[in-house]
Amino acid sequence: MKFSARTAAPVAALLLAALTASACAPSTSGGDGATEDRRSGTVRVWLFKEVNNEPKERIVDEVVRAFTKKHDGVEVDVRYIPVESRAERIKAAFNDPSSAPDLIEYGNTDTAGYVADGGLADITEEFGDWDQAADTDPTARESVTVDGKVYGAPLFVGVRALYYRTDVFDDLGLEPPGTLQEVATAARRIRAERPDLYGIAVGGAYTYGALPFVWAHGGHLAERKGGTYTAAVDGAAARKGVEAYTDLFGEDNCPAAKCAEMGGNDTVEAFAAGKAGMVIGGDFSRQAMEDGKVRGKYAVVPLPGVEKGEIAPAFAGGNNLGVLRSSDHRTLAVELLKSLAGKETQRKLFDEMGFLPTFTDTRQEAAASEPFVEPFVKTLAAGTEFVPATPAWAEIDASRVLPVMFQEIVSGRKDVAAATRDAAARMDEAFGKAAD
C-alpha cells in the first residue's frame, strides 16, 4: 500500500497560440479501449502543476493515502505536468496506451475534442451512481457531458466578475455599476477625469471578457440543431453585445492602439498595476491584485447585465478529471476520481488554493467562509454559459476567430455586421469539418 507523487520534468512550452487553444484535442485513432480491469498494481495519475503546487500536492497525498489504505496491493503514481505542455503530453498518451495514465486532469473546454478522439472513457453509469453527483452545478456537469454521456467529473470552476477601484469611485462619487451601460458611463467618466487611467481595461484578444456582453444581450455563439452546430454570433442579439463591448475601445476609455491586442492577463495586469478603474477578472485573479498596487483599494461585484438587477452570464471555466479509455484499472481509476473530485477534497482545494467548488452546496459554504468569493458565487448562481460542446471549438479557438472579429471592429477595418458575418462563416466551416 504505497504511493508516489513526483513532478514530471518540464518540457518545452508550446507556442502561445497553441497554448491559448487549450481545447486543442489530440488527433488520434482512439483505439478500442482496454480489454481488462485490474484491481491491483499501479494506478497512474496526471494532474496539472500549479504556480504554487505544494498545497495541491498535500491535499492529493492525503487522498491517495486513504485510497491505498483501502486497497491492498494497489499503488498510486501521481505526476504533475506543466499546463503549457498538456496538449502534447496527452496526445502522446492517447497514441501510446502502454505509457498512458489511467486518470488525467484536463481543461473543461477539452472534453468534446478528447471524446471525439476516443481518449476518455464513458463513465455515465458510475457518475449516476455517485451520491454526490446530484449536487453538481448544471453547467459544470455540462462540461463533462457529450451527447448525453458523462466523460469525467468537474474538479473546480472559475468565473469572472467586475473588479473596481474603491478609491477612484469614492473620489469621483461613483456607485458600482448596475447595468452594462452604467459600466460604460463610469468608464468614460473615469477616463475623462483621470486620463492616466483606462476607465475599464478591455482587450481585443480577451474572448472570455467579451462574451458576457454577447450573452447578456441575448446572443449566442452557436445554435445546435440535431447533431450539428450553426454559428449565431452574427445574429441580431449577438451583434448588440459585440457592439456594446467594442464600443469600450477608444480614446474615451481604452485606446484601440494599446488595447486591441490585449488579452485577459494583460487587462488584469493593467488593473493590478493601478492603470485602470475597472476590469473583468476571475476569482483566480485575486492574488495578482493582492500583489499589485491596488491592494486594499478594490472591491468586486458581479458584472451587471442589460437591465437593473441582472447579472451578465459568465463563461464557466475550470478543470475536470477523466479516466482514459485505455486504462486497464478502470474501476480503481473511477473510484480515485470520485475521491479527488469529491466534496471533501474540493473544500480543501478552496481553503488552500481558492479553487471554487463545482458542488452548489459546497460552494455556498465557501462563500459563507470567505466574503471575497460571494460575487463569483452569485454569478454562478445567476447562470453561466459554455462554449459549444464540439471538437470544432478547438479549431475556432486556435485560429482566434473571435479575437480577430473583435480586433477588426475596434481597428475600424470592418463594421460589426461584416466582422460578425465573416466570423460566423469561419465558425460554420469548422463546425462542418467536425460533422464530417
Describe this protein's structure.
- This protein is of the alpha/beta class and 436 residues long.
- It has 20 helices and 14 strands.
- A six-stranded mixed beta sheet has the order 1-3-2-4-14-7. A four-stranded mixed beta sheet has the order 9-12-8-13. It has a two-stranded antiparallel sheet with strand order 5-6.
- Helix 18 packs across helix 20.
- Residues 1-31 have low confidence and may be disordered.
In short:
By secondary structure, this protein is α/β, with parallel strands linked by helices. Helix content is 43%, strand content 17%.
What descriptive keywords fit this protein?
43% helix, 14 strands, 436 residues, disordered N terminus, six-stranded mixed β-sheet, alpha/beta
Write the layout of secondary structure elements.
Elements: E1 3-7, H1 16-20, E2 41-49, H2 54-70, E3 74-82, H3 86-95, E4 103-107, H4 111-116, H5 124-129, H6 138-142, E5 145-146, E6 149-150, E7 153-158, E8 160-165, H7 166-172, H8 180-193, E9 198-201, H9 207-216, E10 222-225, E11 228-231, H10 236-246, H11 256-259, H12 264-272, E12 276-282, H13 286-290, E13 298-301, E14 317-323, H14 330-340, H15 343-353, H16 360-369, H17 374-382, H18 392-398, H19 401-410, H20 416-435
Parallel strand pairs: 1-3, 2-3, 2-4, 9-12
Antiparallel strand pairs: 4-14, 5-6, 7-14, 8-12, 8-13, 10-11
